[in-house]
Design a protein that fits this description.
This protein is of the alpha/beta class. It has 13 helices and 14 strands. It has one domain: Alkaline Phosphatase, subunit A, CATH 3.40.720.10.
Length: 452
Amino acid sequence: MGGKRNLLIVLAHGLRCDALGDERAWPLTTTYLEALGQRGLRLIAGAASPADPGGMASLLTGLHARQHGLVADQTHQRRPTALSDSLVHRLVDAGYHVAGVGCVGMVRHVLHETVSTEDVAEVRPADCAYYRSTRSRGVMAAVMQQRRQRLRSGPFEPDRLMLEPEEDIDGFIASRAGEMIEAMPEDKPWALLVIFSGPGNDLPPPTLYDGIVPADQLKAGFAPLDMSTLDELAEPAYPRSMLQRLEAHHVARIRADYLGRVSLIDYAIRRMSRAVEQRADRGRVWTVLGSDRGHLLGEHGLIGHRSFLSGAVETPMIVAPPVGHAQPRDPFPDALFSTVDFAPTVTALAGADMLEDSVGRSLLPLFHGNAVTPLLPGGLVSEFSDRMMLETQRYKAVFHRGKRRCVALYDLLNDSDERNNLVDRPMASGVIDALRVRVADALLPLRASTVC
């Protein structure tokens, strides 16, 4: 390779796996995200925690939610907790010049240079490059008011601002990321960490991306909330009355906003990819993309992400070599992967030391058609609050620690849409008992850690 690999590490909050256009789940084209996946590994990863900020901490550390403990926040207001160890720390120790753009507060203290943003309603402009930019453009008051409205009503009644793409937080991050790529050193290995606020940030897209998919095409598949199953399916971040009042046209508008923001991320990939192609070292630049969690868009009448339904926990993970590099033998391996695999894969690409206590695995052996070690012995584990999910190749079970019982069981082979909760069926008892044993096996390696 003529030296260490350079790394473009792209993370997004709330990017569902099926949001990529070639999944055909939504009438959306994502040309550049798809192109990235087509030249490398394209995986479906389960979020170790579908709760903020726990999901992002798992991506950056390779630790499960039970290990890092950052799973309590339900709002957009909490300041990010600085991590004492992460993939960024390991890259710095390995001699990389590491820069960050966007919502990089968890690792800002260790980065060599940053363009840091915060997506909250009250912020000190000195700490946030995005808000300094909005102030210079004369839109800061409107943007701050939009965030305060989001705190009151989430995505249900957003303030719709007439913003240009670079006046939106993710458009701003995309622009600054392109500039940062151009400025990366050529005499030493570099890594650029870019963390977007969306698409799952409950904000409408800037004007150019509003209506990318017309809302009238997005009403299908909505079913009103069944209050009798709510506790088994989710922990809403909004008053239940808001969910009860949802109708198909409301959900269609929320879906349209979300897909507009996905398109904005796709545009960002285009911009960054073109900046990479202008560099003399483009033949050494690997791109790794992931997301901390998904985002429910009306499934079972639910909006949000604190749930174990597939829309909330299934995220894309892409490991893409430089253009022209040999492709992996099996670009779409079918197995259980997790967001805790992200950090070990990045550190392996850099030849850096593994993170202490990480339960994730490097996925680079898949490039050569080799198997990777199994995930946690019992299966894929996800956790938030007092709820835990175990997913195997066939079943998904949700356990409620407060109630001390299994509250949901889905047969993924025969019910991929998770419509039929089998927990009270006669056959379920034996399956649940077997899965309890697997939960115990999965929890054994999850020792407490100290990352914050």
